[in-house]
Amino acid sequence: MGDLVAGLMARSGYGQVQSADALQEAWIQAAGEEFAAHSRAGNVNRGKLEVWVENSAISQAISFQKREILKQLQNIVPDRRIEEIRIKVGRIH
Q: To 5 degrees, how large is the angle CA 42–CA 46–CA 52?
């Protein structure tokens, strides 16, 4: 029964949605509410977390805290193996 449910979740994309939600929650915890209100965690690809921010001022502010945020993320979601944060300016909603 468990295999059937897992298969259905995989085909429907539900597992990816849960994974994205978990990563966003980790981002909120690591970056803090102030930064999280103006940014959104994207995908992790080859150890690089893509983070979308509203504008260049937020990008710069997060850049100053990037090392500490990265350490927090590594502690919160060690299974994601995040080694780097890439910040991109764009739409977050």
A: 20
**Orientation angle between helical segments 2-12 and 14-31, nearest 10 degrees:** 80
Tokens representing residue 16 in the block: 């990816």
At residue 8, does pLDDT exceed 50?
Answer: no
Comparing CA positions, the residue from 66, 76, 87, 63 lying closest to residue 29 is 76
Specify which residues 41 forms β-bridges with. 51
The DSSP letter of residue 90 is: S
pLDDT digits (tens, 9 = 90+) for 43-90: 999 999 999 999 999 999 999 999 999 999 999 999 999 999 999 999
C-alpha to C-alpha distance for 39 and 37, rounded to whole angstroms = 6
Domains of the chain: 24-89 (3.30.300.180)
Evaluate if residue 14 carries a pLDDT over 60.
no
